[in-house]
Design brief:
26% strand; Rossmann fold; Alpha-Beta Plaits; 6-stranded mixed beta sheet; 4-stranded antiparallel beta sheet; alpha/beta; single chain; 13 strands
Length: 306
């Protein structure tokens, strides 16, 4: 597992990570989320020994990354898909990594096939698209067949097929009992990929819970009701203890009552209902609500003039 204990990192007067304590467990995909500037990338760099913490610790199976003798056999990571010499071919890049960590060179062909790059193995990386570089970075992370895998924005540049592949691939790795930590700003992907979420803001822990728990905590569910008698029905529902908001286009957004109860009330009072749809919040909606106080830069809505 990955264990982070009271981890703090300061750069001069700026605190990037502030007393963070959390565990990333095997057997599930853990999404690592936070607004821009929350400290996600710094945390990953601290885990991988690329930066030194001001205080606290980050360990992998009880040892710091820098203490691992052949790290690729224990931990695979993709932080920057562009950090590969442009003049080197994909297979030579992976061969160099394999030899430096005592990994059999035959693994190179295996991982290239795994990520779908066999056909371009001897082409120079400088000619690769961003999506191909991402696949190469994933191949490098897999080279030592490690139990711990860390990915930072792994779907950037991937086409829809590639995104679908990454999603199922990460879940397969977790299903094999590996520890999979994925940092991403794409809420839709995390909603379909992650089992657990670690959310930070301004370097501090905001949430450590399942995706379902996070969504239920952060955003209200409601029932969309479309009726030609909106005003009268809204007053009736409010009298029954519901919270009613105007959803636009003739739709009432009703919270506090189930769809079944709303339907029974409509029937009892002979009110026509053209739509009755329970709607759950998305991960993105919950994320925006829960992290609102941790965002440093808010864009102002654009005013329109006529």
């Amino acid at each position: 597992m990955i264990r982070i204990s009271n981890l703090t990192k300061r750069y001069g007067g700026t605190t990037a990570v502030d007393g963070l304590t959390v565990e990333v467990l095997p057997g599930r995909v853990t999404g690592f989320l936070g607004p821009n500037g929350a400290g996600k990338s710094t945390t990953l760099r601290l885990i991988l020994g690329l930066d030194t913490p001001t205080s606290g610790s980050a360990t992998i199976d009880g040892r710091p990354f820098r203490g691992l003798r052949r790290p690729l056999l224990r931990v695979g990571a993709l932080l920057d898909a562009g950090a590969v010499p442009a003049g080197r071919s994909a297979d030579r890049h992976l061969t160099a990594l394999a030899r430096s960590n005592g990994i059999p060179v035959r693994r190179v062909a295996d991982v290239l096939d795994e990520v779908g790059l066999t056909a371009v193995a001897r082409k120079r990386v400088g000619g690769f698209s961003l999506g191909m570089r991402q696949r190469l970075g994933i191949a490098a992370a897999l080279l030592g067949d490690p139990d711990v895998l860390i990915f930072d924005e792994p779907v950037n540049g991937l086409d829809p097929e590639g995104i679908h592949w990454v999603r199922s691939f990460f879940r397969r790795l977790a299903g094999e009992g590996r520890t999979v930590l994925v940092s991403s700003h794409l809420m839709s992907e995390m909603e379909h990929t992650a089992d657990q979420l670690i959310v930070i803001g301004r370097g501090r822990l905001i949430a450590d819970m399942s995706v379902t728990e996070f969504v239920e905590r952060g955003a209200r569910r409601h029932v969309a009701v479309r009726t030609p008698d909106g005003g009268a029905f809204a007053r009736l529902l409010t009298g029954e203890g519901a919270s009613v908001a105007d959803g636009g286009d003739g739709v009432l957004e009703v919270a506090g009552l189930t769809a079944a109860r709303i339907g029974d009330l409509a029937l009892a009072h002979r009110i026509a209902v053209h739509e009755l749809t329970p709607r759950n919040a998305t991960l993105e909606e919950a994320f925006m609500e829960i992290t609102a106080d941790s965002v440093d830069h808010h864009a102002e809505p654009e005013e329109t003039t006529r």
